Amino acid sequence: MEQIDPLEDPNKVDEETLQRKKAAMQEQFEKHQLKPGDPGYIYDKEVDFSADAGTVEHCEWDSEDDQSGF
């Protein structure tokens, strides 16, 4: 019950199950969270995701030269 299944739709479970799943996700988050004083903690970490630009799929709707006028 406390396992997180990425294929499970959380909108289709009952409220009690949803709360248990949320508690399990919060526990995992806190276990992996780096806090000030922890080894490897960086205050303002910036990650450049453009290094993987060769693996990014581009879509028409997500272009910089949008001519829609909005």
TrEMBL record:
It holds the Pfam family CEP19. The keyword Transferase does not apply. Its main location: cytoplasm. The keyword Cytoplasm applies. Keywords: Cell projection, Cilium, Cilium biogenesis/degradation, Cytoplasm, Cytoskeleton. GO terms for cellular component: centriole; centrosome; ciliary basal body; spindle pole. One of its GO terms (biological process) is microtubule anchoring at centrosome. It is found in: Cytoplasm, Cytoskeleton, Cilium basal body; Cytoplasm, Cytoskeleton, Microtubule organizing center, Centrosome, Centriole; Cytoplasm, Cytoskeleton, Spindle. Residues 1-40 are annotated as: Disordered. Residues 9-19 have a biased composition (Basic and acidic residues). PANTHER family: CENTROSOMAL PROTEIN OF 19 KDA (PTHR31539:SF1), CENTROSOMAL PROTEIN OF 19K CEP19 (PTHR31539). Belongs to the CEP19 family. This is Centrosomal protein of 19 kDa. The lineage of its organism: Eukaryota, Metazoa, Spiralia, Lophotrochozoa, Platyhelminthes.
